[in-house]
Amino acid sequence: MSDIQQYLFEVDKNKSAAKDVAQNSARKLESKELKLINLITDLEPYINAKDDAARRSNSIGYLADVLDAVSPRVLSGQERRLLVDFILNRLESDTEGIGSSARALLALERLGKWDSTLAQRVLQTFVDHANPLKQFKLQSERYAILQLIDLLMAKYRTALQSLHDSDANLLPSFIALFEGEKDPRNLMIVFSVLQVPLAEWDVHAYAQDLFDAVFNYFPITFKPPPDDPYGITAQDLKDRLKGCIAASGECAPYAFPALLDKLDSTAMNTKRDVLHTIQACVVSYEPKTVNLYSVTLWDALKFEILAAQEEDLVNEALKALALIATAFSTGMDGPLTAYLRPIVKECNEHLEDAPTTQSRAAGRILHAVSSAAPVVADRIVKGILPTLFTLFKSSESIAKRRGLIEVLNEILKAYIDMHASGDALILEGLKSHSSDALEVMLRATVSAPKAEVSFRLASLNGLVQLTAIPKLLSDEEVERTVDAVTDMVLHEQTAGHGDIRTEAIAALTEMAHTVPDTVRNKAIPAMMVDLPDSPSDDTSYKSTLEALARLSTETEIFDTIVVRLKSRLSAARHHQAPTSYQHALLLALLYAFTYGSPLQEDGAVRSSYFGDYAEPLLALIKEAAPGSRDSAETEIVGRITNILLRSQTPHFQSTVYRTSLQRLVDEQRTKGESVQSLAPLSLHYFAALRPEVVEPTDVHNLLKTLGSLLLDGANSDASTSVLLRHITLLVNKFLTPKTMQASLQDAGLDVTPLLAANPTQQQIHISLAITKALILLGKTSALTSTYLHVLLDLLPAASTQTAQAFATLLAPDALLSKVNHCTVSPLHKQRTFALLTPSLLAALKTAEPSRKQPYLLALAGILQHIPYTVLQPSLLELVPSLLQVLDLPTSQSTVQDVKPPILAILEAALLHDPDTLSEHASSLITRLLTCASPPLKSKSSAPKAPNTTTVTTPGSQPPPSVNSPAVRAKALQCLTLLPTHLKREVVLPFRRQIIRKLVPSLDDSKRSVRTEAVKCRGAWMGMEEEAAE
């Protein structure tokens, strides 16, 4: 059996096997076992089978597959030319298998480039004998032809354009070739192919035919099928179609009217497509072409803005208007004037009625058009501002004046946007009105009634924008503006409604960015004068310090601010100012270094700041007697030290450690009282240091001291928290994983002995702190697992406080971070979840109901810090325990802390895995209703004493609810999700019960709870409406 016979035998049953046969023939051609003439001779009886169209088609398919598999240089140029002639001659008399013919030609072109004449003949043959393509029913055949034509357009563009120039009948036939195509893959190529003649050929005589050929597909409503292997989206088709419509200005007489007609559609997607296409046309067509339709476009587009339907449509219409203005902005004075004249006239008319929706829309139009180019903005200003200021001066209505200032602000914002993009501004028109604008805004900001907040804020915003436009105001005018805003920050005393000091501080901060010298020379001195050495009023200085701290975000005035704050702090200490004032000054310094813009050196905060600010503060702390040290001040100084030290080089840190701060270590090593008083400072200091800087002996000694202090049990809760954090930091950061257990044993902090027999609360907290350090470290798996199981062994007899403390294992701590050179394993939460959860769930299954509370509290404490994606695979096992957490007696404050995160987990489960909760619907609804119930208002509803409550098991009566507002609101949010996320048949039986029990929540004393109750009732009431429909 010959290759062609074998191919024909296989092709309809097994295309892969048929392909292999063709590839085998190609290998024979390459090895000279088969000559091309013999292959064609063998093919002849089948390719000329007059009574069998399928055989003729498959025969051409065989030839195409062979040519596709042949390597370059196997066929000579003459042989390739003969094959092309053979295929084209055959097409003139028989189009059966035309798709395979196209594939064969594609393969031949790949084997060697054609000359111009041959490329022209190929296109002409298909245009003459395959027209229209829709006569071929198979998409694959049409696709192969389109691929061939697309190749010709891409590689033989000049030759095809020459063919068009010499044959006036080519283009009409070429357009008709694609008529009626509907397949998305084919249309992607059709639009690309038609874009070439539209963009490059002289199509004046057939512009309407070309436009109609593509616009027939507008708007695209294609929706790709699920799992579409080709990945063609509606947006892909829209972009190709848009490119065709915008390719030639010859289409403008047909495109703009047709697009504007479609703009009247009620379909929002159609409107979007129209606006995007108009934008593309304005950008692509020549300005003189756009000029013919600019006023018509304005009349249509303004309606989309003035009668806004959706915000994104407004934005697209504004963008189109701006693009038209941009097209006329370079050397087209007449068209620009003609375009702007109706815009200015219309906007001036709307300003007369300000403030209205139309006047605000007019402001947006003016902003968009002015942003097009400086010359456009100058024309707008000359046409709008005279009318605007005339209307402002003639009106006594504050509302009208506010509306006019808002429009002015829109124009000013356009200038700022252009300056930010690097355009050279034209200020001629604006400068002639700048004095009027400044006076109007200053008067409104300073003198308007305090209750007119929106008016004053609009004016304040205008002042910021006036100062942001370079060279618009004189130096004196800028100083007046800064003085006025500074005065608002310092001296406005209005409380509640009318207080705009916060906005004034924000405005001054923005001015610091644009006119830093003026703010430095005028505002900061005025603020420092307002800051006393020793204030008599605790609140008089707060807004001033807030302003100074926020101004520190500007790099150019940062140093000035921190120097002045440091000087004022020294004066306050000298005059023995109240401690609260000194704390406020320190907090301002801390804010400046944390959120401000200190100067940088090699990506780190400039090292000189440490010597200038941290070291003097540290000296004051260390010189104070241990009993007189202020813990709050020590903590603030520690945080400032941390910020300034942590990013420094190891060399710099080593120098600091060996010299100025070695005394701190020495003092901590020898004096227990000093350790306790310096603990907040020491914590932040050691957090800043790199591990390689600190001496191991210092770490071991400090660990021993900290452990001894904690085991004494004579510390306040705040001191205990700091000491525990300190231990966690030291263990995580400075102890070597290989010698971890030996180091802990040497310091007397090995967890196993600490918890060996009847451990105290202090020993338990130390054990949790050490285990937390190991969990974050992630390099001592065996030891971590041992410690966790030792801790779990405490739960059967654990107190509520101990069980609740398990939450600290995964609780976030800002100091335990990579910024502070700690080791934080990215999988530490996943590992901890995998280690603890199975044991806790197993214990809950066997524990007596009266002893479940410690396990539930420990489980809830762990889960509240676990991402939902981590616990999601274990949700089925977790749900019963989560529901039992909601049953915990609510009279204990500890339970109030664990319920909201558990409810958040259930909420996430309802959103992402509702089927997991379906079988627990009854239990879930009962508990959610209990959690959502507000406190009973009668005296008899007082909660029971904590020692009389027990864990409620499923099926028993839940305890009286005294849930916090956070618990009640979150429970109602979960209830709201049930009707839409669980199956209807599951939740419908509970509908009446839930609606009835929501009544007390609708009268809850907290507004946030009442709001959620209304939403919840609406969701459940909606089920009845759905049933009625």
TrEMBL record:
Region Disordered, annotated ranges: 936-965
This chain's protein is named: MMS19 nucleotide excision repair protein
Q: Name one GO cellular component term.
A: nucleus
Q: Which residues form the MMS19 N-terminal domain?
A: 40-306
Q: Which intervals carry biased composition (Low complexity)?
A: 936-946
Name the family. Belongs to the MET18/MMS19 family.
The listed locations are: Nucleus
Q: Which residues form the signal peptide?
A: none
Q: What is the lineage of its organism?
A: Eukaryota, Fungi, Dikarya, Ascomycota, Pezizomycotina
